[in-house]
Amino acid sequence: MFERRVVVVVYAGALALDITGPIEVFDTANRLLPSPGMPYRIDLVSADGPRVRTSSGVIVEALPLEAADGPIDTLLVPGGWSLNRALQDRALLSWIRRAAARSRRVTSVCGGSFLLAEAGLLDGRHATTHWAYTDAMACRYPDVTVDAEPIFVWDGPYVTSAGVSTGIDMALALVEADHGAPLALEAARFLVLSLKRPAAQPQFSAVLDAQLADHPPIRAAQEWILHNLHNPLPVADIARRANMSLRNFARVFRREVGATPGQYVERERIARARELLETTDLTISQIARRCGFPAPETFFRSFGRTLGLTPKQYRHRFQLISPSGLTDRHHETDRSPV
Fold first, then answer.
1. Which of 60, 89, 277, 332 has the highest CB neighbour count under 10 A?
2. pLDDT grade for 236, boundaries at 50, 70 and 90
3. Alpha-carbon distance 11 to 23, whole Å?
4. How buried is 228 (Cβ within 10 angstroms: 0-12 exposed, 13-18 middle, 19+ buried)?
5. What is the mean pLDDT of residues 195-217?
């Protein structure tokens, strides 16, 4: 039986979810894969093994780096709060460069893209990383085109994903490429995940329960809405995007999505506003404009009706960043992986 060999290079201080999220997707795909199939064989390798402590204290067992000799289907490089140290490890970077040369595709999660870039693998390519560090990556690696918006970027054999949980979305896309959409969808359902987050979805994404419809015109309309929340979105314009009459579009949309187009647009505007309140220092008025509310007063009414809080109250409770960047409350002296 042929196998797809997935090699994950781990190092002390890597983020546990960067590692475990994607491999759980591959393992679940194996369990759901009809026979005969081509399952994934997952090997964790490290120079810090055999027991490697991640940033959260979770310990993973890994083989030595030389155990990954030979052809590799998918090489995966995670990020971590210890990334600064990893970037200075010339032996690790050299190993990644050599392993990439014998890999069908090379992937990264979160800050792992810095390691790929430091190894010279992303020069002349498009890539992404955690939204908090896209500017730093663009500055450090001017030969890499850094896209701050998507949750993952696929450029040739290189696939880079954004912050932490987006490694799961990337892994689902890899499963879909290898085995087709039905298996990826079944794996996502089994893992109780957001079923269809497209690569181009912004990192400031919609709430996970806002699934994309199976019906292609409706799904296309939803994706267009998510990319245009800052604009007025008359239902007639959305229907034209779906190439459907207004009446038929409204009927099919409600059947597929479980909400009217107007309700869906408002829900996604609020979801985007929540993420901006949590993760930026934009003013309330700026957030209102970015989310397509014609006036702050309209934003206040819609937000309060949906959540029972004012935007200011919500930010006070849930904001995740300080003005200087991402806050790691448990490691205030090690605020950034870069």
1. 277
2. very high
3. 16
4. middle
5. 57
Please give the Cα distance from 199 to 78 (Å, whole number).
18
Per-residue pLDDT at 36: 77
Task: Give 149's pLDDT tier (boundaries 50, 70, 90).
Answer: confident
Q: Is residue 329 pLDDT above 70, yes or no? A: no
Q: What is the pLDDT of residues 240-259, one digit of tens each?
A: 999 999 999 999 999 999 89
> Can you read off the two tokens belonging to residue 57?
């204290």
Residue 291, C-beta contacts closer than 8 angstroms, at least 6 positions apart:
229, 230, 269, 270, 272, 273, 276, 299
Structure tokens at 258: 């479980």
Give the pLDDT score at 198. 52
Report the distance separating Cα 303 and Cα 287, nearest Å: 12
